[in-house]
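Please, structure for the following, as tokens.
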Amino acid sequence: MAKTITVLLADDHPIVRKGLKATIEDDETLSVVAEAADGETALNKIRELRPQIAILDIEMPGMNGLAVAREVKSQQLGTSIVFMTFHADEDLMRAAMEVGGRGYLLKGSETDEVAQAIHAVCAGRTYIGSTMASILFGQKSEVAGDMLSSNLQSLTPTEKKILRLIADGKSSKEIGEALGMSSAAVDMRLSRARQQLKKILAPSQNSADEMTV
């Protein structure tokens, strides 16, 4: 069995935490080691337990999720941050990445996507949920519009199709079947396309990182 990945959950709604914990622990390689209802408690538990992943709501009493992530980064605590929020806002997502976030999910995401995000971030990648990716492809903010257009123009038609199918929640296998290519071929094209997305979504992070959508 794979080594267990430790996770902290921070959200001020007990029902949300309960549902997330059940979803996460459906994956036998994941373990929720702590929960918090506010940012200060979350930061203290991260300092104490050093979980590999912290899933943070952005809006919490007292210290919000962005402030927690900023402290985790500045104190070099070694915990990777995945934000989970109701806010489908491109500027907020950019801010979340700038303070050290490595994942951004919208509440209401497919249950298996939470585990996917955790595994991707633990593997050193940045994860943007499929719903948020769909929004990014469907509209352009004033800040990112020109950059988005420029980077998308460098993608091939096949890469654009693959990214849109990924944004719709399709797996590499399903995309390969739809486009008449192998999963390996899909993944190869995704490797290049993800680098273009990374220029849009996380310009401040190391260019060697990989993004998963």
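The mean pLDDT is 80. The first helix runs from residue 14 to 24.
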